[in-house]
Amino acid sequence: MKALVARDYGPLEDLVVEEMPVPVPGPGQLLVRTEAAALNPADTALITGAMRDVLPVGHPFIPGVDTAGIVVAVGEGVTRFAVGDPVLAWNGIPSGTLAEFAIVGDGPGTGHRPAALDPVRAAALPTATLTGAALLDAAEVKPGGTLLIVGASGGIGSFLVQMAVQAGVRVLATGRAEDEEYLRGLGAHEFIDYRDAAVAAQTRRLVPGGVDAVIDLALAGPALAGSAAAVRSGGLVVSPKGGPDLFDGGVTGVYTGVTRPEGRLEGFATQAAEGRLQVPIAAEYPFADVRQAVIDFPRRHLLGKAIVVFPPIEAE
Ligand SMILES: NC(=O)c1ccc[n+]([C@@H]2O[C@H](COP(=O)([O-])OP(=O)(O)OC[C@H]3O[C@@H](n4cnc5c(N)ncnc54)[C@H](OP(=O)(O)O)[C@@H]3O)[C@@H](O)[C@H]2O)c1
User: Fold this and answer.
1) How does pLDDT run across 151-178, given as a tens digit for each residue?
2) CATH topology of domain 128-255
């Protein structure tokens, strides 16, 4: 099979597309013929080695964690899926979904893809929706409460804005000035241009007592103090990266990442199929351009997800 391969840690430009053996599904695993795969910031960090201290990978390394495709083989003990099923999956790190075939687990990180959900939109969902939902859970904002989302226009943020609005929360979303219409189209009640003035000051003009929580998808470590200044005493700063446990003004830091509760991914797939969840696709690349897609990814301003699309199976 053809796969995007990193032969060692290094710059994205060192990636190559080459022939690799088709993996064989073990017990509790499925072999999926990839139709579409999403790009995520973790992919580039794993390739360059930026995360090697916490998440080392072996080489040759095939990046990619999100996939949508068709089951072509099942391992021993798999009962929920059969050959021919369309699926979508988040399979943990590392997964190797930027390849014509990939292994995924027969667990809650894999879901049946509804017929009304095309592979491109299905591939956009796993990491972004599962992480967004975990962060929203951690933020503990009640209906009628206020939530600031920093980094709202990106992969996770584009879903998180919608989830929070669905939960009855008043959402303040940051973006570039030109992103206001996009973010309001996702349901954001208030827009904050993060490049104009300090986000906390702008937030407090809109919510003078401070918001109940901020979910910050952009900053990490001590830099989160700037976002914490937008939060009321007793409120939370939630981040998928990491930072201080406590901030000035009685604000607590909470750090969490992607989780796979039973049925959650399939729930988002159903919502997307029924048009209750918008799936913003910012960029689509054919698999022939996968190397360039990954090189471009960290440099582009993307509203939503970037997807690599594989040639249709019947065309082979
Ligand atoms: N722990 C986990 O399990 C887990 C899981 C998934 C993701 N993550 C992490 O979560 C983060 C977000 O993921 P993602 O997929 O949403 O990334 P993304 O698509 O790259 O989105 C990042 C967003 O942050 C914005 N941004 C960048 N700098 C900013 C700043 N100084 N102030 C305000 N906004 C800024 C970007 O806006 P512009 O386009 O305007 O620059 C973009 O909207 C990444 O760091 C990722 O690695 C962690």
Assistant:
1) 999 999 999 999 999 999 999 999 999 9
2) Rossmann fold (3.40.50)
Q: Which of 235, 246, 188, 191 is nearest to 209 (CA)?
A: 235
List all residues 6 or more positions away from 231 whose beta carbon is below 8 Å from its beta carbon: 148, 210, 211, 212, 213, 214, 237, 247, 249, 251
Ligand 1 atom index nearest CA of 305: 19
Question: What is the residue extent of each domain of the chain?
Answer: 2-125+279-315, 128-255
Residue nearest to atom 12 of ligand 1 (CA): 217
Confidence of residue 91 (pLDDT cuts 50, 70, 90): confident
Q: How far is the CA of 41 from the centre of ligand 1 (A)?
A: 8
Q: Does domain 2-125+279-315 have CATH number 3.20.170.30?
A: no
Residue whose CB lies within 8 A of the most ligand 1 atoms, among 54, 65, 125, 131, for a mutation test: 131
Task: Tell me the C-alpha to C-alpha distance, in Å, between residue 79 and each of 28, 29, 85, 111, 134.
Answer: 9, 10, 12, 13, 27
Distance of alpha carbon 24 from alpha carbon 30, whole angstroms? 9
Residue in this structure with the two tokens 């879901």, named with its chain if needed:
111
Q: Provide residues with CB under 6 Å of ligand 1.
A: 40-42, 127-128, 131, 150-151, 153-157, 174, 176, 194, 217-218, 240-241, 257-258, 301
**What is the CA(71)–ligand 1 centre distance, in A?**
31
* Token reading at 296: 């471009």
Measured in Å, residue 6 CA sits from the centre of ligand 1 at 23
* Alpha helices, DSSP H, located in the chain: 41-48, 119-124, 126-139, 155-166, 180-185, 199-206, 224-228, 264-273, 290-296
pTM: 0.97
Residue nearest atom 18 of ligand 1, based on CA coordinates: 154
